[in-house]
Write a structure and sequence with these properties.
Elements (H helix, E strand, L loop, with lengths): L9 E6 L11 E3 L1 E4 L2 E8 L12 E15 L4 E3 L2 E4 L1 H8 L4 E4 L2 E4 L9 E6 L4 E16 L6 E12 L7 H6 L13 E7 L14 E7 L32 E8 L10 H10 L4 E9 L4 E16 L10 E7 L24 E6 L10
Parallel strand pairs: 2-7
Antiparallel strand pairs: 1-2, 1-10, 3-5, 4-5, 5-12, 6-7, 8-9, 9-19, 10-11, 11-12, 11-14, 13-16, 14-15, 15-18, 16-17, 17-18, 17-19
């Protein structure tokens, strides 16, 4: 009898066009773990029938949710297939992604219809296929000696424990694999006020970093079938929609509580916090002589909390928490996309460049 094992499991994804309609995978996902599962809404039988025991339950609704934990890699291309996690980043952010300069893809935040994708996992003994998977947010995090993690929260329409669109042949065709990882040691971070373009004089030494993004998609919502046939099964969720303001925040740590030097961070950060000063923050990793670049651009943030606790006799560390905003009282005219002309108005933008062996055009 076959035994399901984790190490040979393969995950793939494909961007869908129509809700409830699965598509073939185009991308191998560089994932570490997944917890997509089906939750059943049970209806208890409370009929009084002369006994203290209940006679049973009925199945009423099905919802699918979970998390996908991934590595962030520069995409690897093989034919028409890719390997990495940039397709998931694109779906979660939901914007009109663009190629503003040669081979540089700008991933933008969206406000229209939330995109969705098919997620399929070959679990060695079965293929699980999550149809119309929406990504309700993610965290990007890293620390010294590590890579850039991207962990996604997912809501799907339905999960098939034996996939019908993606089967053995589709996993065989998913040829792309590998790709260089985006590492902590490749990054440079910069922070300052919205008064000039950031440069090397704005470098800030961080010991870890985390961005949290929630696009506030509606939770699984159920309805009887409608006349337009856009919803035909009452026990499965209607299509999720954006359901409120986005929530974007960052948290970073300075490994030393510094009171001197070129920039007195202990004083400077507190001054910015007290004045609610709009700031710009960027993180950039570049390898292979600039052929592979990852940029995280945040044109407007406000520091809300600074902590420097004494946890023992060791050197003090400072943790900074900030909120990201769209637009600003002082408009951003300095932090631009790769075309050096388009100003960033949203809370953050991700730009990725891979001129040698990866994705050189928008994923959809």
């Amino acid at each position: 009898m076959a035994t399901g094992l984790g190490y040979p499991a393969v995950m793939g994804a494909g961007k869908e066009t129509t809700f409830r309609t699965a598509v073939n995978m185009t991308d191998r996902i560089s994932y570490l773990s997944e917890s997509l599962s089906e939750q059943i809404g049970w209806v208890r039988d409370d009929v009084i029938s002369g006994s203290a025991g209940r006679s049973g339950m009925d199945i009423e609704t099905f919802s699918v949710s979970g998390q996908i934990q991934t590595e962030t890699r520069y995409s690897q291309k093989s034919g028409t297939y890719f390997s990495g996690n940039d397709l998931l980043l694109a779906v979660a952010m939901g914007g009109l992604h663009s190629e503003k300069s040669a081979n540089v893809i700008s991933y933008l935040l969206g406000e229209g219809t939330a995109p969705h994708c098919t997620i399929a996992v070959q679990k060695t003994v079965a293929i699980w296929e999550a149809i119309s998977t929406h990504l309700s947010g993610f965290t990007l995090s890293m620390k010294p000696g590590d890579f850039l993690h991207a962990d996604f929260d997912a809501i799907a329409y339905k999960i098939l424990k034996t996939g019908t669109e993606n089967e053995a042949a589709q996993f065989t065709a998913l040829a792309a694999s590998g790709g260089k990882r985006v590492l902590f040691g490749d990054f440079t971070f910069r922070i300052n006020t919205i008064a000039a373009a950031l440069d090397s004089g704005d470098n800030i030494g961080l010991s870890d970093f985390k961005l949290t993004f929630k696009n506030n998609l509606s939770e699984p919502t159920f309805s009887t079938p409608d006349v337009d046939a856009t919803h035909t099964e009452a026990r499965y969720t209607i299509e999720p929609v954006y359901n409120g303001f986005r929530e974007c925040s960052v948290e970073f740590k300075l490994p030393r509580y510094l009171t001197g030097g070129v920039t007195n961070w202990a004083t400077q950060l507190e001054t910015w916090k007290a004045a609610a000063t709009p700031l710009q923050l960027s993180g950039e990793a570049s390898i292979d002589a600039g052929a592979k670049t990852f940029k995280l651009l945040m044109p407007h943030l406000i520091i809300e909390d600074i902590q420097t606790p004494v946890a023992g006799p060791q050197a003090l560390e400072t943790t900074v928490k900030a909120k990201l905003f769209r637009g600003a009282s002082a408009a951003n005219t300095y932090m631009l996309l790769s075309d050096a002309a388009t100003a960033i108005v949203d809370e953050f933008v991700i730009e990725m460049k891979n001129t040698t062996d990866g994705r050189t055009e928008v994923p959809y």
